[in-house]
Structure formats: C-alpha cells, structure tokens
C-alpha cells in the first residue's frame, strides 16, 4: 500500500513539474485555413424618389459586372423644371459621363453690345501701348558704352586669344607629325589570340 502511495505521489509531482505552456493555446498551434474569395458577382439596382408621396423627380439605375465595370444612368429635375439625365460608365480608365439635356448650361454666354464695344476699346489700347513699347525712344541711350580703356583691353584679349589658338594648332600639327613618324619607323606587334579553355 505504501508503494502505491509513493508512486502516486511521485507521478503527481512529475505532472506538476511538466510543461503546461500549451494548455489553452490550441488555436496558436493549429493551421489556419483561408477560403478563396468567390468569383465576382454582378449586381444591379434602381430606384425612384420624390419630394412627397406619389411624386417622382429623380431616379437612378446602375449595374456592375463584378469585375470593376459599372454602367448606369441617373436623372433629376433641376430648379428650372428641366429633366437632366446622365449616362455613365466607370471602369479602370475612370468615370465617363454622357450628359443629356445640358445644352443650355454648357453654352458659352454671348457678349452684349456694351461688352463688345469695351473689348474693342481694350484691344485698340493694347495695340497702341504694345507698338509704343516695341521700339521705345532712347533705348540705346541707357546701354553701357565702351570706354577707351575697355576697348583696348578687349583688343588685347582677342590678340592673346588668337596667339594661344595659333600655338595650340602648331602643337597639334607637331604631335600629329611625331605620331606619323613613330608609326612609319616602328615594327608592328603581331599578337596572336590565345584561347584559354
């Protein structure tokens, strides 16, 4: 009986000293499974709405293929009681609307007679000022003038420049002659190509 008690005591101590860090953390050690997303699902919807029951002043219809291309149309009544309609397509290249019944909004305003007269007056004044300032009198009077000492220094600079250019040209001819002499008197090296494998 005492052997049985001692064995039970030793087994319980051994169990207490065992690694219990895994208890309660089964989800960490299990493999995670992911589901593949389903194929794109096309959709379509439409609605009509109004400001009060039984009155429709706007509607929208849209359908998508599930892969990113959306076609739709919407329509509304503007404050001038004109029906405005927009057909659109949205895809990877952007949003492409087609406007219907927007001609009066997109038209450029026409100039009135007073505006036309003022524009003509403005253009005449602009031309007058532009012509006057194209060749203003006394423009050359404001440019700096060469003094005698500046003219002498400039001439000296050009003389030295021409002298140096002539010296460089002579050196180039001399080196070319030396190169031709060297090539005429040297024995060419016949180096055979060696193929290393």
Automatic annotation (TrEMBL):
Could you tell me the superkingdom of the organism this chain comes from?
Eukaryota
As given in the record, the signal peptide range reads 1-18
GO MF, one example? structural constituent of chitin-based larval cuticle
Q: Which InterPro entries match?
A: Cuticle_Struct_Prot, Insect_cuticle
Task: List UniProt keywords, sorted A-Z.
Answer: Cuticle, Signal
Extract the coiled-coil ranges from the record. Answer: none
GO CC, one annotated term: chitin-based extracellular matrix
Extract the Pfam families matched here.
Chitin_bind_4
**Name of the protein in its database record:** Cuticular protein
């Amino acid at each position: 009986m005492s052997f049985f008690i001692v064995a039970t005591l030793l087994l319980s101590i051994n169990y207490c000293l065992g690694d219990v860090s895994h208890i309660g953390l089964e989800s960490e050690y299990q493999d995670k499974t992911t589901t593949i997303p389903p194929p794109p699902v096309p959709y379509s919807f439409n609605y009509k709405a109004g400001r009060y029951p039984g009155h429709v002043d706007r509607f929208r219809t849209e359908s998508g293929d599930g892969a990113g291309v959306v076609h739709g149309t919407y329509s509304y009544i503007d404050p001038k009681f004109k029906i405005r309609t927009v057909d659109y397509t949205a895809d990877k290249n952007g949003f492409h609307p087609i406007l219907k019944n927007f001609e009066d909004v997109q038209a450029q305003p026409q100039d009135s007679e007073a505006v036309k007269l003022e524009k003509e007056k403005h253009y005449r004044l602009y031309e007058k000022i532009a012509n006057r300032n194209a060749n203003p009198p006394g423009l050359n009077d404001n440019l700096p003038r060469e003094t005698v000492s500046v003219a002498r220094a400039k001439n000296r600079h050009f003389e030295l420049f021409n002298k140096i250019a002539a010296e460089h040209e002579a050196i180039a001819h001399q080196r070319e002659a030396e190169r031709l002499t060297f090539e005429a008197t040297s024995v060419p090296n016949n180096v055979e190509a060696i193929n290393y494998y």
